[in-house]
Amino acid sequence: MVNSMTGFGRAEQTFSGGKLLVEMRTVNHRFMFICSLPTSLRHIEQDLLKLIKSRVNRGKFDLKVEIEENRGRLKKLQVNETLYDDYIKTMRRFMKTENVEQKISLDLSLIDLGIIEVVDDESTTNGLEELVLNTSKDALVQLLSMRETEGEYLYGDVYERLLELEQMELKIKGHVPEVETMYRERLELKLIESYRLLDGHDERLHQEIAFLLDKSDITEELTRLHSHRLQFLQTLTEQPPMGRKLEFILQEMNREINTIGSKANHAEISKSVVSFKAELEKLREQAQNIE
Hints:
The protein is of the alpha+beta class. The protein is 60% helix and 15% strand. The chain is built from ten helices and six strands, in the order βββαββααβααααααα. Strand 3, helix 1 and strand 4 form a beta-alpha-beta unit. The relative contact order is 0.14.
């Protein structure tokens, strides 16, 4: 099954304190997790990463969580007892040292110092972490569905290109006898001239021809090319991830077709090699977007 690395998911939930919005998207990239969370939810980032990695193997992943607060959302003051005690002790010590007779001020500076904080009433945030995780699961389902749909289109395109490669492969294979005959005739003329032989049936001549023909033989490369193409097709039916394996197979196919082009030295084969490599490049671009 082919999955694309391109996907988008969005889910919303309302709660007593407001509305929760989760958006996630993936694009073609080595796996990277970018998370945008409200400060109060940073502690669940690893839980979200674990959730995503359980379903997504490849691609750049962007996750954004936003909370739209109700205007009437309840707030309360929270005192940091430790800081408060230190503040009182420090101010008393200072007044004693400096002989200052003044009441300790409890003004807005306590908020600036972080001694008093304005926080949400717990009645409006209870269960928010669980709500974020569940909403993220809903968004993830949408994202995965889109990746599967995109993957179906990718499979169709890749399959058609593989059929094109098969035709080119058969066309090259059909020219192999011509290549052998062409090489044999050229070599016979050159070697006869070189040995100054009048008899084209000299044993040394045939041995030299056989050796040089073997060096120009592309049968093995065609066999490996055929095998790689079938492996590519088989890999498309496996479970993700498969993208990196497909890219590796394409590299091997490119290596074989380059060798065929350099060894054959045949006009029609050269044309087919150029077309083959152009299709391989298009396949490589598609494989880079497969999970």
